[in-house]
Specification:
single chain; about 650 residues; alpha+beta; 5-stranded mixed beta sheet; 40 strands; about 15% helix
């Protein structure tokens, strides 16, 4: 029932299928979805295909992933976390309806509002008046077939009550046999011993975890010296954290760093974190984004925490940002000192956060990205900034209307504000904003052959002006340029440059094995732009993933790990597999690449390989040489927010000492 409502937008707007159609499948969605007349045969055929796909998933889900991912990256990546109709959202609503049902079983229905739409069931003395009845787009059709018909080809049985699907046992057995035989042959081909590079670091110095299922530890993560002892501390969010009767309230954990770095032990953060902050709104997903800045200008760092799904129980998803003031010698306040709210439904305030100097006073201000917000349309998105100054201490409640700076997206479902970064250039601050699902089209007719969906776009602003400083547009269909952003200083061919690195994790990559070329679907790219002319960024270097669907460029970072004044480039490839058989049979491992800030070449960097196989992202990896780094003694923390080692999707952090 919950899936019917939230996926098909019954009585609500912007449900899962609607969003997927707008982002990836606009022409198909508008042509077929919402027809008033659907024939019985169409329903049976489509349902039978779903049945076969479900059976195929049970037997070989890894083989079907490329098919689904190629057609809709949105489906495979937002299946769990899309705010309206993702699995996490449906879990909250299912729990909510069970609670209402239990109340009715115990107390009766006299005090309950019982509309047709189950999401609007409310058991209180006052009936909910904002329910808007919306007729389903699809009419209910009675099955008029009364006789039993057996279709041998599809193995469909028609009965008076409907249809019954079945699949022959030989299909299951033969598929298992083919899998086993094919795997054996592939391993014979790859029997040559695989020598692991000396640059690989596979064993972490420590790991941090939670035992709470679906907590998603590591969804957001930053480092900052919160306790002002001279060493950077780790701040990490777990937006899916739940307690009994309080679903997805979320938590934030703080682990203090010392001269020796982060604690070198495996530990449960619920037991050993130095400070824990907890959300209080049901399904608010507190901890989805983090930023550290001195918001009240008292000389002590404060923490801003995003909770983009606040208001989900009212189907508004307005979101909120909570600011915790720091006190010298006492750490952060246990309760938020300032709460920032949004007046728009589906605002999802707090999806992304950034500390950047927007008003040119040399102190960081709070920048908030809302990619799902209306922005003058549907999911155009907007970005707002709140200036930091001394009398913030007396302001307990703020709203988007109180923002000091605001810019909006251009097109519906472009997700403007999905990623944020800032860069200091001489006397100006560049604020960089990603819009990864921006589509390239003339007139945006979904049936036009000129439409390229989710090519992505990156905007540069020079605040406090709201005029666009520059824009860089992707050119690859489904490439989603701008999913991640980073800026810093590197040296390329002996010339020091300020650069912008943009992740395009679902862009295809060209592969070469000797003289044979092929396309690696959604291998991903990291694009480096020269910002010497800040108004006209020029493409400097390209780094490519070397596995299909590996999502190279899913996250990008620039940070000086060896104190040489140049930033190392860190690129994640979360779905990268170790060899070809894991693509076919599962076993995604993921990988993080660290490239030296002193690069010797530009252009297609990973296309220049030592072997006859390209691209080769590993060939250009460099290890920092110093013992002093970003966190204590050169500790790098890698999040695996979907790790199920300690609890299903509980998440895990790995600390590596380089």
């Amino acid at each position: 029932m919950v899936a019917d409502v939230s996926w098909h937008s019954l009585g609500i707007d912007q449900g899962f299928l609607k969003a997927m159609g707008e982002v990836n499948l606009a022409a198909i969605y508008q042509e077929f979805y919402g027809r008033e007349i659907i024939t019985e045969g169409t329903i049976i055929d489509c349902t039978y295909l779903l049945f076969l796909e479900l059976h195929g998933e049970r037997l070989a889900v890894s083989k079907l992933f490329p098919t689904y991912a190629s057609k809709s990256p949105f489906l495979v990546e937002r299946f769990h976390d899309y705010f309206l109709g993702g699995v996490d959202d449906m879990a909250f609503w299912t729990n909510n309806i069970f609670e209402q049902t239990s109340h009715m079983l115990e107390n009766g229905t006299s005090g309950c509002f019982l509309p047709e739409n189950p999401l609007f069931i409310k058991c209180t003395r006052e009936r909910k008046n904002n329910y808007i009845s919306k007729q389903s787009k699809n009419e209910h059709y009675k099955n008029a077939t009364s006789s039993l018909i057996v279709t041998i080809k599809k193995n469909i049985k028609y009965t008076e009550r409907g249809v019954h699907f079945n699949i022959q046992s030989w299909a299951t057995n033969s598929l298992h046999f083919i899998n086993q035989a094919f795997a054996t042959n592939v391993w014979r081909v790859l029997a040559v011993a695989h020598k692991q590079s000396s640059k690989h670091i596979s064993k972490p110095a420590a790991s941090y975890f939670l035992t709470s299922p679906y907590a998603r530890l590591g969804w957001a993560m930053i480092s900052a010296d919160l306790n002002q002892d001279g060493y950077e501390d780790l701040v990490v969010g777990a937006p899916g954290y739940s307690t009994l009767g309080r679903v997805q309230i979320g938590r934030v954990y703080i682990v203090y760093g010392k001269q020796s770095g982060l604690p070198p032990e495996d530990m449960d953060l619920d037991e050993k974190a130095d400070q824990v902050l907890e959300g209080h709104q049901p399904s608010g997903r507190f901890g989805s984004a983090l930023a550290v800045l001195d918001f009240n200008d008292d000389g002590v760092p404060d923490l801003a925490v995003g909770a983009p799904s606040v208001g989900s129980q009212f189907l508004t998803y307005k979101g909120a940002v909570y600011v915790y003031f720091g006190a010298e010698g006492r750490g952060l306040a246990s309760q938020p000192n300032i709460t920032i709210t949004c007046q728009y439904s589906y605002c999802n305030l707090g999806w992304s956060l950034l500390a950047a100097d927007v008003d040119e006073d040399r102190s960081a201000d709070l920048v908030v990205g809302c990619p799902y917000a209306p922005g003058g349309g549907q999911q155009r998105g907007f970005v707002v900034a709140f200036y930091s100054y001394f009398n913030r201490s007396g302001q307990g409640l703020l709203s988007v209307e109180d923002a000091n700076w605001m810019v909006k997206g251009e097109k519906n479902y472009a997700w403007f504000g999905f990623s944020l970064d800032s860069c200091q250039l001489e006397n100006i601050t560049l604020l960089l904003i990603g819009s990864p699902t921006w589509k390239s089209c003339v007139g945006c007719n979904p049936f036009s052959s000129d439409v390229r969906q989710s090519v992505g776009k990156v905007y540069g602003y020079n605040p406090p002006s709201t005029e666009r400083w520059f824009a860089v547009t992707g050119d690859k269909d489904m490439g989603r340029m701008g999913m991640s952003l980073a800026s810093g200083v590197v040296s390329v061919a002996g010339i020091t440059r300020t650069v912008l690195v943009v992740g395009a994790p679902t862009t295809d990559s060209l592969s070469r094995i000797s003289f044979i070329s092929s396309v690696l679907r959604q291998a991903g790219l990291a694009l480096m732009y020269d910002l010497t002319d800040s108004a006209k960024p020029s493409l400097l270097s390209i780094f490519s993933g070397d596995r299909r669907f590996s999502r190279f460029g899913g996250d990008v970072y620039l940070s000086d790990l060896d104190n040489d004044g140049l930033d190392e480039m860190i690129v994640t490839s979360p779905l990268r597999t170790n060899d070809i058989t894991t693509v076919l049979f599962g076993g995604t491992a993921g990988r993080v690449y660290i490239y030296s800030g002193n690069q010797t070449t530009s252009g297609n960097v990973t296309g220049h390989c030592k072997s006859w196989i390209s691209p080769c992202p590993e060939d250009w990896v460099r290890k920092p040489k110093s013992d002093i780094g970003r966190l204590g003694h050169n500790d790098i923390v890698v999040a695996a927010e979907r790790s199920s080692v300690k609890a299903r999707l509980g998440g895990r952090l790995f600390v590596y000492s380089l």
